[in-house]
Amino acid sequence: MKYLTLKQAIEFHEQIIATSGGLGGYNEIQLGYLDSALKQIQNDDYYSDFIEKLTHLIHSCIKFHPFLDGNKRTSIQLGRAFIEMNFPGADIDDYYLNMEDMVVGVAEGKIAKESLYKKLQEMVEVRIKGIKIIKKDGSIEELDLEKLNQIIVEILTNKNKDKK
């Protein structure tokens, strides 16, 4: 699995502020919390599936409020980038529209982290069902969310074995 860095998060935020306006800059302490969240999602003991990682990333950017302005917009972009880097070609064209109300709800305390997880799971599952893989024997297999999670677990398990 591929992960975003704090540097990328800051760059996304700067692009968003330059494009859509707002106050640039960040709170050093709060930015440290976002950095911690970016590192925490790499630990499969804490966040074992992709949607848990995605949820924590988006939720953390909203709730920790690392930037002086544009935290909700940045959280949406971080989520989209995380999906795209791990599932290139995923159909997420209406991602922004679906996320706008959700991030506002999270910011206002109307949508809990668990509810965000469920909504993201529904939204992402619909989009990644269309992902197909070409197997070593040349055959094509369409993935559902369960199969995709199995593949991710296998990859991460093998990666952890290689480290030992």
From TrEMBL:
Transmembrane portions of the chain: none
NCBIfam families assigned to the protein according to its UniProt record, in alphabetical order: DOC_P1
InterPro entries reported for this sequence: Doc, Fido, Fido-like_dom_sf, Type_II_TA_Toxin
SUPFAM superfamilies listed in its UniProt record: Fic-like (SSF140931)
Source species, domain of life: Bacteria
Protein name, as recorded: Death-on-curing family protein
Gene Ontology molecular function terms on file: kinase activity
All copies of domain Fido, residue ranges: 4-126
